[in-house]
Amino acid sequence: MPIQFEHVSHTYSTGTPYEYKALYDINLEIEEGKITAIIGMTGSGKSTLVQHLNALLLPEKGTIRILDRTITAGEKPKNLKSLRGDVGLVFQFPEYQLFEETVIKDVAFGPKNFGASEEEAVKKAKHALSMVGLPAETYEKSPLELSGGQKRRAAIAGILAMDPKILVLDEPTAGLDPLGTVSMMSLFSKLNREMGKTVLIVTHDMEQVFKYCDNVVVVENGKIRTHTSVQEFFADSSLCREMNILPPALIRMKDLLKEAGFRIDDNIQDLDRLAYAVARQVKKHG
Ligand SMILES: Nc1ncnc2c1ncn2[C@@H]1O[C@H](COP(=O)(O)OP(=O)(O)OP(=O)(O)O)[C@@H](O)[C@H]1O
Ligand SMILES: [Mg+2]
User: Fold this and answer.
1) Residue 264 per-residue DSSP state
2) What is the C-alpha to C-alpha distance for residues 136 and 29, in angstroms, rounded to an integer?
3) Which ligand gives the minimal distance to the CA of 91?
4) Are 5 and 64 in contact (CB under 8 A)?
5) Running DSSP on this structure, what letter comes out for residue 77?
6) How many whole angstroms separate alpha carbon 41 and alpha carbon 20?
7) Where is 70: in which H helix or E strand?
8) Phi, psi of 168 (to 5 degrees)
9) pTM for this structure?
């Protein structure tokens, strides 16, 4: 069953001087079992949108259908705890998510809260911590002692330890070094491919969208501007440019080569095949 938003709108701080309408009549269907990127300019409403998926924010109008649950405007959501077990949300700012005395207690909190014994919870926590690449010497530290990238990893581990069906990741690689980014994205990709997890990733990084995601949703001023496959989105750079988004390097390079007179097949999606196509044409004319 897909995840559906039907006529969802959201206004912050209604009735105060800070009132702000962040989402307008959103209609959106997100495929299960895929990796979907949520992109758009800063302040466009991406975080607001994804926080509706586990009822952290509630719709002012409209309905959200997720797994076998329905969240409807004006109604108190039912079985909130079980929803949050099934839909794991990693916040944009990980420090909002870490609250226990030590890293290991923090990551074990979720499984314990869902009925695991102390021993089982710690086992699950250690497994999740190793998946995100946090070394054992950090386990007994306070989350406050961690670096930004380590906090990010600990927050992700806290969600993975609960083994949710749907993973919602709000800028999960912000603050990670380039190698850390690749290993984290590979982990999400593996969880999707091997365990069938549905993954939603809010990101500003088009290289990640191009390399790891199946579909892309563009949010603009609280509305859905486009929702399409990644392949279609990056078929050439025109859609990106229209939306003020810098396309991935490979797409920019393909466009430059086309402008220079090379014939470049739209299906070429990696550097090796691009280099081969160019080399063949150079040889022919050289
Ligand atoms: N608690 C709040 N009260 C009032 N306005 C808010 C609140 N949180 C967010 N907003 C406003 O809602 C709009 C959308 O914010 P949101 O955080 O969803 O954007 P975003 O697309 O995630 O941006 P970024 O890429 O910077 O994370 C912004 O204009 C923001 O100022
Ligand atoms: Mg955000």
Assistant:
1) -
2) 40
3) 2
4) yes
5) P
6) 17
7) strand 69-72
8) -115, 115
9) 0.94
User: Is the confidence at residue 266, as pLDDT, over 90?
Assistant: no
Confidence class for position 286, pLDDT limits 50, 70, 90: low
Pocket test for ligand 1, best of 9, 18, 20, 220 (most atoms within 8 A of CB): 20
Looking at ligand 1, which atom is closest to the CA of residue 92?
27
How remote is the CA of residue 268 from the centroid of ligand 2, in Å?
32
What amino acid occupies position 131? M
Q: For 154-173, what is the mean pLDDT?
A: 97
Q: What pLDDT sits at residue 227?
A: 97
Domain boundaries, the chain: 3-236, 248-286
pLDDT tens-digit series, residues 112-139: 999 999 999 999 999 999 999 999 999 9
pLDDT above 70 covers a percentage of the chain that reads 100
What is the torsional sign of CA 242, 228, 269, 166? positive
Superfamily of domain 3-236: P-loop containing nucleotide triphosphate hydrolases (3.40.50.300)
Task: Tell how far the Cα of 3 is from the centroid of ligand 1, in angstroms.
Answer: 22
Name the closest-CA residue to atom 2, ligand 1. 12
Q: What residue owns the CA closest to ligand 1's atom 25?
A: 42
Cα separations (Å) of 236 from 210, 239, 245, 252, 278? Answer: 12, 7, 12, 8, 17
In the reported structure, the alpha carbon of residue 83 is separated from the centroid of ligand 1 by a whole-number distance in angstroms of 24
The values of phi and psi at residue 113, to 5°, are -60, -25
Nearest ligand to the CA atom of 49: 1
Query: CB within 6 Å of ligand 1 — which residues?
Result: 12-13, 18, 20, 22, 40, 42-48, 92
**Confidence (pLDDT) at 95:** 85
Residue closest by Cα to atom 17 of ligand 1: 47
Q: Are strands 35-39 and 215-220 parallel, antiparallel or unpaired?
A: parallel
**Region 86-94 average pLDDT:** 95
Q: What are phi and psi of 63, to 5 degrees?
A: -140, 145
